[in-house]
Amino acid sequence: MKLTDIKNKLTYKNIFIAVMSAMTIIWAFLLLTDYESLLQTFFLKCEDFMADFTNVVQYSKNFDPYHSTTNTSAEHAYFPLSYLITGFFAGIALDCSQNDFTIWQDPVMMNFILLFFEFLAVLLFAELYEMADGTKLTKLLISLVLICSGAYITAVERGNLIILSVILSIFFVNYYDSSNKVVRELAFIALSAAAALKATPALLGIILLYEKRYKEAARLIVYGISFCFLPFLFLKGGFANIPVFLNNVRENFSLYENTIGCGLDSMLRALGLHYPNMVSFSRIITYIISALILLTYTSEQKKWKKLLGLSMIIIMLPNHSEGYNVLMLLPVTVMFLNEKEHSKLDWIYLICFILLYCPLYIENLTGFYDYQYPLAVIFIMLGIESERKLFEKIGELKICVRQTAEQSAE
Length: 410
Description:
mainly alpha, globular, single chain, 19 helices
């Protein structure tokens, strides 16, 4: 085989598929040969299986989540759309005791929940397959390795609705610029629903402002407000729940302020460097980089890079951002792999994406690595690039001012 033929086959897409497939096979082998050790890497050894869903089902009993006495009020901090979804499951449960965290042991309930998450897996797979370029085999493999990623496995084990939010966000990314008006409008509605589930995906709508589609951005805001607040009408108490909801959100922020998640401050805590000044400084850096990305990526030509900037803000900015939020990078990753031409720096992005999705990261007994580090690398790289773009804009502005002054002098 000629050297040129080898180089042609060593595309970013093929490397990603090969490495991710190998890591997935290794993880599956560990699962089969050392099940007990692998089980310990999940929260409470799966004794709190799918708790992000089953706990919320309990809160949603009688469609009165904001006054539920199960757990603390800080845990009842979702927008009402989430409680409408889980409220239907509460009606299925054989035993939905307000003070008993054993709802996952209800076989009828768990069958319905597992069917629901299987349906979500099919939807996610179909969207990724549709989004990926290449042969049918290539599209199939990309979709499979992403579905087998550590972030997705963790999201399923937690039973977190981030999966549904990501599915809706991907639909928006795929079709927000569709030539079909109906499909384009459905994409806006999908993002609004995604934001009503997890709030932060709303930032993806900024891409409409980047593209100066102000009327569509206004409609998106209307849809978003509608999906976030109109569902209150279907809960006991209606809009009177809004002050309670806002108070619960404040308590939630306070409760999870110092937990380990995706942000730069979480990385310092994971390294044991949880000194107050360092953590505060890392938060300031996060705010600065986020602001730089928002200001300077308006002129970015590559669509995947624009969406990467917005997606990283979604992941890094919140105080409490769990590892499964890496799933917000799924559409960006596929777009990145679809690119025909890459710069030398894109190798770093490729390595980071592989590390982020690798299922071995939940196998923390091996001391393999943690997801905060590749996230930090991507975020800092975007920050450096944003700074460069800012100085370029300042330089262009100076030239424009100088030329204007010279023309006035003449």
